[in-house]
Amino acid sequence: IFKFLGAISVDLGQDRIKPYLPTILTPLYRELNSNYAEQDPTLKNLSQEIIELLKKLVGLEAFSLAFSSVQKQANQKRAMRKKQRALQTVANPDIAARRKLKRHKNKAETRKRKIESLRPMYKAKRHRSHTLKDLAMVE
């Protein structure tokens, strides 16, 4: 997709690409600022190259305006999601409590996995669920 965006940008030229610049920059910006674990470095390099190509194609001033608008829009979306999450915590405390318990449980499991990988002889205790099914006597 990034190669396609770069090819279309070059093909359209300087004047015809300007209205589409924010649309083209949005996925490139998202890839540059992503910080998830399984990130492909070649994809990040490709997006950086296409951004440099666009910068040379449309000029620094037009590029900066479009890039700052994309950046501003992404920050607004991030803030809106954060605000929605905070409001949901107040509106639905039971859902928020379940999410928090799940997060803590995942954190503990991650810690146990990390300890086991560092010290192979050590086996961390696993949490046993105490549901009625587990407590029932099986013959």
TrEMBL record:
Q: What is one cellular component GO term in this UniProt entry? A: small-subunit processome
Q: Which InterPro entries match?
A: SSU_processome_comp_20, UTP20_C
Q: Which domain of life is it from?
A: Eukaryota
Pfam assignment, any one: UTP20_C
Q: What is this protein called?
A: UTP20 protein
U3 small nucleolar RNA-associated protein 20 C-terminal domain residues are 1-116
